[in-house]
């Protein structure tokens, strides 16, 4: 995502990416993209068709990237803070379970390193997925069974109104999907059919890897639609014999389903979100791991005190 952002910034002449700079030189070889809306309302990507170097680039993105000065000279500090889970925040082994759950839900952390007080190494990492897995293992316990039988609608799920759902249509460029994830701070979104009511697939932030590493996809990365991207990735996964949630159908549920069943489904499928549909299969909303964790906790007043005082501040180039 950082590389795509740098490409876009260089194409627009912003963020210090002046002509002759390492970023701009790389972009001239990779080609740049911009979004435009046609008279019919469809969003398309456009590139510079007159760039001989752009036309000559094919095959692997990394062959071009690794031969560039941009790649050789970029430091870890240049990319830190460009992802949505900055700043760096670690738990200490003495912190409470409530603190951990609140950070993973209300405070929008996706994962939390665990360190010992005064220690200089990470002991473990707690993720949203690991918390939901822990909940799945609580099946049979009285407290869980009492809470787990509640319907999604009883718990106020999904949290997001249907009109606020971040999504792309199947005929929009897949680059638009990744751009929206970055702008809206979400980890994934549904790909909707031509009617805009039914989800035909799901694209996660981690799927950007296929855009850049699969040669058959990379050669069309500026123009490939969300639907064709899903098809190409599935073919790539079959060829590589890799397992992935992308190989299956969209995982859905209903508002009347019990939260226990949703937890078990998310855990068994190893996915981070599930889409809520009505009786006609129309997508009404999304439930994420964060949404589920948020229903377990309430933050007492002044609970954190000066907890955040030691957080490493956001770098100047942060896009969070």
List keywords for this structure.
single chain; 320 residues; alpha/beta; CBS-domain; 2 domains; 3-stranded mixed β-sheet
How would you characterize the overall build of this protein?
Helices cover 37% and strands 15% of the residues. It contains 15 helices and eleven strands. The protein has helices at 2-12, 22-30, 52-56, 61-66, 69-73, 76-79, 97-104, 128-136, 142-148, 174-184, 208-213, 215-218, 226-240, 259-269, 289-294, and strands at residues 34-37, 43-46, 91-92, 111-115, 122-127, 168-169, 188-192, 199-204, 252-253, 273-277, 283-288. Helix 1 (2-12) packs across helix 2 and helix 8 packs across helix 14 (259-269). It is globular and about 55 Å long.
**What would CATH call the architecture of the largest domain?**
Roll
Which percent range describes the beta-strand content? Answer: 5-15%
| Amount of helix | 25-40%
The CATH homologous superfamily of the largest domain is termed CBS-domain
- SS-derived structural category: alpha/beta
Mean pLDDT: 80
Order of helices and strands: HHEEHHHHEHEEHHEHEEHHHEHEEH
Would you report the number of β strands? 11
> Low-confidence parts, pLDDT < 50 over ≥5 residues?
16-20, 29-59
Spatial order of strands in the largest sheet: 3-4-5
How many H/I helices?
15
**How many separate domains make up the residues?**
2
Major β-sheet profile: 3 strands, mixed
Using the alpha-carbon principal axes, give the shape: globular
State the end-to-end CA separation: 13 Å
CATH topology of the largest domain: CBS-domain
Radius of gyration: 22 Å
What is the CATH top level name of the largest domain? Alpha Beta
Keywords: CBS domain, Repeat
Organism: Oryza meyeriana var. granulata
Domain CBS: 160-219, 243-304
Protein name: CBS domain-containing protein
């Amino acid at each position: 995502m950082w590389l795509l952002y740098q490409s876009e910034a260089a194409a627009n002449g912003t963020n210090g990416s002046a002509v002759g700079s390492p970023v701009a030189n790389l972009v001239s070889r990779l080609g740049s993209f911009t979004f435009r809306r046609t008279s019919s309302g469809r969003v398309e990507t456009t590139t510079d068709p007159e760039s001989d170097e752009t036309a000559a680039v094919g095959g692997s993105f990394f062959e071009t990237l690794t031969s560039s000065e941009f790649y050789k000279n970029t430091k870890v500090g240049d990319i830190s803070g460009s992802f949505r889970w900055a700043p760096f925040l670690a738990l200490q082994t003495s912190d409470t379970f409530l603190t951990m759950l609140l950070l993973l839900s209300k405070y929008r952390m996706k994962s939390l390193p665990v360190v010992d007080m005064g220690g200089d190494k990470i002991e473990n990492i707690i993720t949203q997925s690991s918390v939901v897995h822990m909940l799945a293992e609580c099946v049979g316990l009285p407290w869980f069974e009492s809470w787990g039988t509640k319907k999604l609608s009883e718990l106020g799920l999904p949290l997001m109104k249907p009109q606020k759902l971040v999504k792309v249509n199947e005929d929009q460029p897949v680059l638009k999907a990744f751009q929206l994830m970055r702008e809206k701070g979400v980890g994934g979104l549904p790909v909707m059919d031509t009617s805009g009511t039914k989800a035909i697939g799901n694209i996660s932030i981690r799927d950007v890897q296929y855009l850049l590493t699969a040669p058959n996809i990379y050669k069309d990365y500026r123009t490939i639609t969300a639907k064709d991207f899903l098809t190409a990735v599935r073919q790539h996964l079959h060829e590589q014999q890799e397992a992935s949630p992308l190989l299956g159908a969209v995982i859905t549920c209903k508002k009347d389903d019990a939260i226990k069943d949703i937890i078990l489904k998310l855990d068994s499928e190893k996915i981070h979100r599930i889409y809520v549909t009505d009786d006609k299969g129309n997508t009404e909303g999304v439930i994420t791991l964060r949404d589920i964790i948020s229903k377990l906790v309430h933050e007492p007043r002044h609970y954190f005190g000066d907890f955040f005082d030691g957080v490493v501040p956001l770098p100047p180039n942060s896009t969070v």
